[in-house]
Amino acid sequence: MFSVKNRTIIVTGASGVIGFAISEALAKKGARIIALGRNKEKLNKSFEQLASFGTEHLQMVCDVLDVHSLQEVAQHLDKKKITIDALINVAGGAAPGASARSEFLFAETPLEDSFFGLDLNDFRYTTDLNFLGSVYPIKIFGESMAKQKSGNIINISSMGAIQPLSKSPAYSAGKAAITNFTQWLAVHLSKSNIRVNAIAPGFILTEQNRFLLFDEKSGNLTPRGQRILSHTPQGKLGDPDDLVSTVFWLLSEKSSFITGITVPVDGGFSAYNGI
């Protein structure tokens, strides 16, 4: 019902925890993965594991914010006459200076700990990575989908797009933008047999957020981690593999009448207001 066998799927951020989990699951079921990532060492390690599920996979070092880099990948695929069936935009993240140290600005709060202390370069990089980091790959790789009049695009949004995360204005704004863009693009491409949807993960434990959720010395949840669990009805953090079934569903022909939606995979976080 949800077969991806022999389908060619580009995954950006493929060397990250979530990107690799998705790539591995699809490869195990017979998909051909074009794994893109900017860290060559991490990408090589991920690709070694993917190679055990077939020899047709490709890996290419690529920065999603570098249009020239994306174009080189597209040209390489075109030369090899590789048809792209789907694109999954996983690449994202946040620069340290784009997050506020304080949740609220009180009279006694130092301005450098508030929004006014944010590093504007980090702020712009974070919003660009989480918004344009999906827009650019769609523009470069989606063009071939438009020409062949078929394709499937899945973006990775966030709970921050639905409810802005305290201390993370740049990340939340970037993800909100990609959620909105997903809706716009789904309508725009609806006559070309290209579907566009997004997944909004809840709090998934990754390398990037582990230090925010767990104390490195004790291994116990940090106060922020405890608050997250208390606002997640299922009372647990998500695992990257929790996203896999939704990816298979959105890629399948069984969801052919679904486009322009963002699916929360969040343990109930977005449905709970804490009251």
From TrEMBL:
The keyword Oxidoreductase applies. GO terms for molecular function: oxidoreductase activity, acting on the CH-OH group of donors, NAD or NADP as acceptor. Pfam families: adh_short_C2. InterPro entries: NAD(P)-bd_dom_sf, Sc_DH/Rdtase_CS, SDR_fam. Keywords: Oxidoreductase. Belongs to the short-chain dehydrogenases/reductases (SDR) family. This is SDR family oxidoreductase. It comes from Maribellus comscasis.
